[in-house]
Amino acid sequence: MNIEKVKILIADDHPIFLKGLHEVIDDVENLQVVCKADNGIDAIAAALANELDIAILDIDMPGANGLQVAEQILAKKPGVAIILLTMHKAKDTFLKALEIGISGYVLKENAVMDIINAIAAVNKFQSYISPEMSSFLLKNQNRNRNTAASQLESLTPSERKIMEKIAQYKSTKEIAEDLFVSEKTVSNHRMNIAKKLELSGKNSLLRFAIEHLNA
Q: Which domains does the chain have, with CATH numbers?
């Protein structure tokens, strides 16, 4: 029986890292690296010329950085899931990535361990953030509870619990497991919360949680 492969682009300007990433991904039976690039311009060209499911992009690349490449890919192929690789734990860059609509955010120092988990998550239309990045963000947030309090008053207790879990960078699946409900129930709650808070766009609930709920 043939297994349909998940088609992946990888782009990084460090040859050794690119080679290692390729080997790690190709070790998994249902994953296939269909194209590689060592700069942003070539990454955009490769993404547009090939059938892709996922693009894994280094943020710091010559020609065009990972954020710029992600924007170009998503503008033409919005169905492609983007995973960004970064050396830096920077909140502003992370928020910009969420704004663009990336699906995964992986620290390069943990990429070998995290990348397969990230691919599995985004391939199921879920988000993935390296645990170390989540910990960093949780420790470095400023409280802004006054604005959030008035906006959160309209939420039910169940919806508030889910927002608290989102603020802990938990995925829909993890929230469902924590609260002993189905993933569909969590997804429905997320949609209702977004409507009540007048939020739209990919990652909007996570952005709200980052700005208002985390300590």
A: 6-137 (3.40.50.2300), 142-212 (1.10.10.10)
